[in-house]
Amino acid sequence: MFLLLLLSNNFISSQLFYNISTGLIAFCCVTYLITTIKRLLTLPPGPWGLPFVGYLPFLEKNNEYKDLDRLAKKYGPVYSLSMGKDTVIVVNDWNHAKEVLKNDDLLARPEAYVAGSPVVSFIFGKSSFDDKIIEEIEKFLPKLGKGPVDDPVKQTLIDSLMIAAQMGSQFTDGSVEIEAPVGYQEKLKALPKYMQNEIDQHKKKQSKEFDDYIDGYLQEQKKRKNNDLNSNVPFDEETLQANMVSVYQAGSETVSTTLTWAIILYLVKYPEYYEKIRGEIASVIGFERLPDYSDRNQMPMTMSFIYEVHRAALILGVNLFRAATCDLKVGNFSVPKGAAVIVNFWTINHDPFLYIKPDEFDPSRFLTDHGTKAVKPPFLTPFSKGKRGCPGEGFANIEIFLYLVSIVQRYKIECEPGSILSFEAHYSTIRKPKSIPPLIFTKISEKT
Known about the structure:
By secondary structure, the chain is α+β, with helices and mostly antiparallel strands. The protein has a single domain (118-443), classed as CATH 1.10.630.10. Helices cover 48% and strands 10% of the residues. The strands form 5 sheets. A 4-stranded mixed sheet has the order 1-2-6-3. A hairpin with a 2-residue loop joins strand 1 (78-83) and strand 2 (86-91). The N and C termini lie far apart (105 Å). 37% of the residues are buried.
């Protein structure tokens, strides 16, 4: 009798477990089916994914932007896909991208306060910032002529430049240190605490003149408070800290990676452009004085070369996700509230309707007026664009120009004999050269 009762209870338990499991599976399948049908009816077209994980398993790690480009060729300039539980709208052409980049309903983070303030006067108007960059570059360049170099763009140098420009820290050959384990991501995690400490120190100092980013921002904040000026932009310490992190990101790894592509790959691969840039240096700057950022206005080939490196190397394959704060339209396509929208800059930078022969490296595509002027088109956006554009873009542009020109002015650059020059890239947060061959920098003092 006891055995029959035990078997009966086990059967009931097994049956109950079976019923619950079947019900849960059915519920999940129905939910997935309803979600899929809803997506097919309301969202842009796109590939099917798997339950729960969406299309993620089909995206190649570190090359997602190329998979997104491949999907654009099949589904068109705007398509949708699932990434886990999230709906993602991918924009792959400039006409729709410029609409996304200026849409206030696609805001991923607080608007960065950079434009229209004394802060900008410091960033772009003070020659002291150029002087600081050149001073630090001058300390670093002699190291390049001491044998094969596998790191011609030393990360600690770029870090030091960015931190000092924002915080007024003393330059001592890359001595600015952030207390964090070795590694870029670890530094980013440590930045908020480090920067808040600097903000607190600047507040105690209460300088009437400003020599760095924090001073300028705090003075503008005080002026707005005293004059009761309102703004749609949150003008607080949280925004200041966010700006500083963004500036550091743009001016640190972004700058060093762009320069690595420019110096290691493109100048070495295409020596004819090295000679043209050096020719401009000879006629505009000479070999006695140091370059100044204002020299760029008379150096169209140099600027066109930098623009083409931005386009061809494209360190930012896709922009950061922007969340739709309400139901909206991108062109004729519906974007539901909560959906993520990304712009695939890789596809835009290789669009044959925007660039003739986009797979070729050709700086002359940006030259106008018989080669006397370099024009950067609006669809070339290496630092993203719009209100969510990177506030550190101005810093980055100055550093890239001064560093590149300073090196070409002083050195001939060649690969070490027997080394292989590869354009293969690795992509995590940004797109980097997968391998860096040793370079030989030969000091030259006059035009050759």
